[in-house]
Batch of 3 targets.
Target 1
Amino acid sequence: MRAMVLEKLGPIEGKPLQLREIETHKIKKNNDLLIKIEGCGVCRSQLHGIEGDWVKYGIPPALPTVPGHEIVGTIIETGPGVKALRVGQRIGISPLHGSCMYCNYCKTGREHLCDKAEITGESLLGGYAEYITVSEDFATPIPDSMKSEYAAPLFCAGITAYKAVKASEPTKGKTVGIFGVGGVGHLTVEFAKIAGLRVIGVARNKAHLDVAKQVGADNVIQYTNQPEFLGLLKKEEGLLDSAIVFAPSEHVVDTAINSVKKGGTIVLGVLANIPSFDVFSEKTLRGTLIGSRSDMSDVIRLAKENDIKVIYKTYPLEQANQVLEDLKFSRIAARAVLTP
């Protein structure tokens, strides 16, 4: 099968992903599914892994690897133990490719926190390819009404956005700032609106602010620097009840913390050092990581019920390097989807 393979880490401008013919995956376990991939969303975390930014976190754990972890495709073969799914059915795969199913996290519906969690796109089982296998337990059916290219971003950007809004403990009528309105952020705006929040979109790039308005943000404020931004925020909205951060900048993280009222909540969807934090303000700083299988089912249900807008553009699989470079330099308005 054709796949974009990472054999050596390096800047995306050097085109480190190589188009290769590798062996097509085979059913190995009783409850395995073989999937013909129809769309795979392109996530910024893949860029960090490819360029070596996350080596200190053990990502990627080994080379070679096939990136890609927000996948939709059609089942073309099933293992003998598969019970609920069938050949010809379309399913999606999130970054959570598997877990032990026995630890306390797994038994309490928090499989994504399992110490033995298996991550899609950190081995040769990745979405920048024509085929992939996955356990029936970690495949989520999608409605016939959803196009594969539309649904693919829901399996990382969507679940990440949904889980971040949940982590912010939303209360109807409260105000939340979404810092970074790109592939994940535009969906965060929508899930926050579904939760009944007043939503303020924050971004450096005017195109991203336009995206925020397009998906329903109540107000948008351009970020230039912290003093100027906080001045505009206080003038237009007052301090926020909560903030959700997907902008990969420690300056923006610090600004988000300072934009929230005393006793408010800041949810971080990015890795960052926290230079200062006023403990006397009683703010809550919380991390978030994708979500559980139940969360993933909720995302698909809510997307269908609320006709969520997924802003995306499709590209051929072979253009993965160029798409990631465009993402690096903020030339992607929301989400790119690779199609084999």
Note: The mean pLDDT is 96.
Target 2
Amino acid sequence: MNDTTVNIYDNQAYLISIIDLLNKTISQFGLGLIMFMGNIGSVLTCIVFYQPTFHKNPCAMYFLASSFSQFFTFNFSLLTRMIHYGYNIQTLNTSLWYCKTRSYLFYLFIAIPRYNIIFASIDRYFASSRDALRRQWSSSKIAFRLIIGNIFFWCILYIQVIIFYDITTGTCYYQSGAYGMFFSIYISIDSGILPTCLMLVFGLLTLNNVHQTRKRINPGLQPDRTRSIRFGKMSKKDVQFHRMLANQICLFVILNLPNPCYLIYRSSTLYAVKSPLRRTVESFVGNMTYVPIYLGFSLTFANFAISSQIFRQEFIQFIQTKILRRTVASVTRDRIIAVRALRSKDENE
């Protein structure tokens, strides 16, 4: 009986060491790669949306604000997680001021870029509406106010983290009791369920608006005759913004789904007695549910580059004019030559 018990403990200790090693390896190399990709992507996305082509476009303003705030997400939230899990630096669980500050800024830098994307989805719904009064809500002035208000709102809301987070039994965590139950449920809704629902609802409403616009403009004409006006009053830029946002929402929903599932599980087992192996597994799973969240942020630039021709053109033009020091006239001339070459090739064939 004693030998059996010893073997069970040995097996559990072995599994715990394997899980810890896997958690450490993924945190070091996986999060490190995401941080590298994310920083480059955030800088490039901000540069592209800062170009004159996107000036005063409310959707571009939300994308710019989201990408700018993601820079802090990568260099604080992700970096501190990588240090904690990847390099086993336990300052989070030993310093109370760092515990409170890190937890506060962690939630802050995750919420701000996420809700800027939600504002962009709401803006696309208003911009695609047939109602002129609703379209007025899609404006650069409103976008600027919401971007600033978004920052202040989350800065105030998450003050509760500074108050109620503490180090108990060697772990930086929110206080147990009634508040612990409230916060575990709240963060499950705020970080997972609510953003996902808002993005899906306004994304579907925007698709419905676009579909209604296509049906309303000359419904009796043949497809080949309506090809040039199939998007009605929407400009090419607006259509591409719809596509960029739709892909961003799909990316968000898919990569963010594991985290709220874990948070719901954690809130439901908050007061359960857990073995060391179970605590290790839950710590690993919890850390892994944040990896796809950071991955989704890091893929923002790639998503925009794939989804939008205008975005790609502005990026290429920036590289040619600012990095390679070519003039705008020479870039335009090269484009004309390339188009003529393609046309002549088609004629010869």
Note: Strands lie at 165-168, 171-174.
Target 3
Amino acid sequence: MLRNFWYACHRSAEIGNQPTRLRMLGHDFVLWRDGGGRVVALDDRCPHRGASLSQGTCSGGHIVCPYHGWAFDAGGACVRIPANTGDARIPRKALVRSYPTEERHGWVWLFVGDLPEAERPPIPPLPEYGRPGWKAIHGDFLWHAHYTRVVENGMDIAHAPFVHSRSFGNPARPEVADYVVEPHPWGASASVELVAPPPGGLWSLVLPKERPPVKTRVAFYMPCCTRLDLDLGGMKMIVFSSNIPIDEEHTLTRWIMLRDFFTGAWADGNARKRTHRIFLEDQPIVEAQRPRAVPLDMSREVHAKSDAIPLVFRKLRRECLVERGWGLRWDEPEAAAPAQLVAIRA
């Protein structure tokens, strides 16, 4: 897992003025909205006796620990200890680590790291979100898999004819034409044309049986976002996924599916069902991959020409871990102090 990146950690609409617990990156956080409506993120641990702040309440812009009533502001500083009397002071170490947050694409993004604001990699763009003519639906999917395998699967062009032969893959035409990888800051994209199978279900009403090649674009953004663009001959669809590491064994994919056709609410159920089906087709394959994480050693697995864009992801991940030292582990000593981020080399 990596530090010094933004993570899409939660749906914006689900965060209110009372605490919400978040498990991500092998760590527990607490989220809530302050009096101004801004999302606040702190470690979910009171420095006094280690109680979970997410079990507490929020009042007056502060979060109150359920165990002894200690109150903390949005910056993580303790502002009240009810048991104190007279001139008793609040200990200087009565602090909880806080995290920068932003809201984009209907998600709360949380920055985990120690880079100055000007040096932080940007939140991945999704300019179609909220644009007139595009309909967006949200969903999520839980994997018992390492996030790196899930991310690579989201940009793997050659697996569709085999894993998705019952949905959109065409097993009769598995060839992947040579493509050019287009690098961009903290990621890359590639475009190909795939031969689609005859349409079925709702699609058979609007698509001809003899279909032109489907213009397909895949992209990734470090550390864990992928984007799939499909041009179905005048109808466009996008699946944007944030593949969030819960821990080393589990990944939660929060996804947005956008379409510029059938934009009425009547089509949302079908769109959600089809998107979910794609994840279900991928699930048994991805969860059975070994080793569980993508190897740092490029020679550990054999590569083909069609693997060009996943190899860019592997190189960038290795750069972050080995050259930049952005590996993440949590150091939580027994003393009452905020959790510290420590760089490791893996």
Note: Residues 135-321 form a domain with the Naphthalene 1,2-dioxygenase Alpha Subunit; Chain A, domain 1 fold (CATH 3.90.380.10).
